[in-house]
Write the structure tokens for this entry.
Amino acid sequence: MALKFTVLKTASDSAARLGLLETAHGVVETPVFMPVGTQATVKTMTPQELEAVGAGMILSNTYHLYLRPGSDLVKEAGGLHRFMGWQRSILTDSGGFQVFSLGKLRKISEEGVEFRSHLDGSKHFISPEKSIEIQMELGSDIAMAFDECPPCPAEYSYIKESADLTYRWAKRCKARHDHPYQALFGIVQGGVFPELRRQSASQLGELDFPGYGIGGLSVGEPKPVMYEMLEALDPAMPRDKPRYLMGVGSPDCLIEAVLRGVDMFDSVLPTRNARHGTVMTRHGNLTVRDRPFARDFAPIETGCPCYTCTHFSRAYIRHLFKAREVLGLRLATIHNLAFLIRLMEEIREAIRQDRLGQFREQFFAGYAG
Amino acid sequence: MALKFTVLKTASDSAARLGLLETAHGVVETPVFMPVGTQATVKTMTPQELEAVGAGMILSNTYHLYLRPGSDLVKEAGGLHRFMGWQRSILTDSGGFQVFSLGKLRKISEEGVEFRSHLDGSKHFISPEKSIEIQMELGSDIAMAFDECPPCPAEYSYIKESADLTYRWAKRCKARHDHPYQALFGIVQGGVFPELRRQSASQLGELDFPGYGIGGLSVGEPKPVMYEMLEALDPAMPRDKPRYLMGVGSPDCLIEAVLRGVDMFDSVLPTRNARHGTVMTRHGNLTVRDRPFARDFAPIETGCPCYTCTHFSRAYIRHLFKAREVLGLRLATIHNLAFLIRLMEEIREAIRQDRLGQFREQFFAGYAG
């Protein structure tokens, strides 16, 4: 097992933890935020720019890479790291979430999921075993078990059945997984029902995965419900394994989830926001393409050390968006990723000094997000 | 006058010249190729990436910047260099070519050109004086006189009238131009008629501009006709002033035009090609998005020292294009600009060693372009 996780420190007044996560491609400090590179590229960014904003681990999507360019091609290229020129760590999701998002285009059975490609309508079947095989071909550092991600809201009975299926699939994933350096994480489901969450955590805990995803949150439920689930899960999850809250990336959720014991995050939020001309700041989001910024020659965020803020003005970036120039997307993406990754650094520093509660107060005092 | 041009060497068997062109923002060796940054950005590139591929001077378009974001805004930002974060030299065109390309949307008179914006249909009027005022607000290092760029093909009588108008406008531009460091170039017209070309060169020569554009070529006439015009112009143009062949950027035309005494070039070709998935190589263009490259793990051009070729494969770049990822446009643009700028370096080195004729033979032996 190439994955090593060390809890360096736990907060005295919350479940927040400072840790080190080591994979075959490097060490990252946790809590960590992973930018999303769905199609073997974090949208608009080069690997060098990702390193420059401080990214140590990225997420890539199994469903997309399986369909295009194909995991066999990625394997032939020498694996995903080599294919995309990224030397640091990569986590791949299982493809489950994307497949279930296809709605009518997919059919779930005990065996797996039949679906039609969103690209060309071709028919495919992904079983837990197949998801693992694809992820092994991709050669990511962390693979995720194939889970069912139920819709929200959903009935208790549906969620219970779904969590049970996810558990059975997790066992099959583990049985199939066999890779020299890749680690396989289980995924805790259970919807918005604390007891199902705890049961899922307990069942998956018995399978002794080297880490755990927390799935099915941030899918439409109110934020306080997500926080409640994390609180219910904290005592039920193994303390010495990394906990990865899937698909969460807004600054307030990051802080609240870290306080509830989460170590890893991913989200398309910073990159998607950037593409819509929305930049993230300590005072909340700012739509830099709006008219008020036309003659605003200040940087997006004064004092921000990122490439964008040290070289370009809001007025210039607004111009690029109005003129539909690619550089606008790039500069906004660089800033948003740098902003979130720096926020995580500050969170880690606050845990180190055991003042994360205070950090939260100060952050929310200035944040209108 | 901030512009200084020095001819360092002239070929023994052709009109090719090696020179140094110094502006308020640096020195470039000539012959030089200028990437085009129409809307205050060379599409997809940061200024730092432009420096890395070796660009020393870029072109930006007066018509586009006048309409958006407005030259007054650029002036308020501290000028175009500061607005876009580019420290090296900038040449602006006059807006003439773009305005005339509007077709039915414009009306030419002795006074100037009335036209409707391609963005919102609003009515505008640009006179020679207005073009110069806009360019002074932009603060480029080299401004171009406002000329009429006639269609091709066109009758002798039309071209003659047009060249005469361009001459009268050139005088008005010169009278209006008053800038601490910006140099103003005249533009030679005359269509495909050698005597009109020579007459235009002679008339403009009398106005003693610090440099001359050669306009109205590369607009549809066959390449041999363009070469013939350059040959006709060579003896008629002042030898101590830089000669700028506007809108030309294919490798074969660059070599042939340098052999006929041209010092400066600009073209959207490398950046536009890149956006369509076409990369430029010593063996000709290559449509990297085509299927044969799906499993081609070699770089675009083996031995090319550019960032793209030293980090990424054809297969990866093809994937990015198929997946419509911005990084594909970026990597192709970086390579194409690096390729053309390196070609110019090789051309200069060949002039230095007085073997440009030999270089041409070798180049065309391998080029299928």
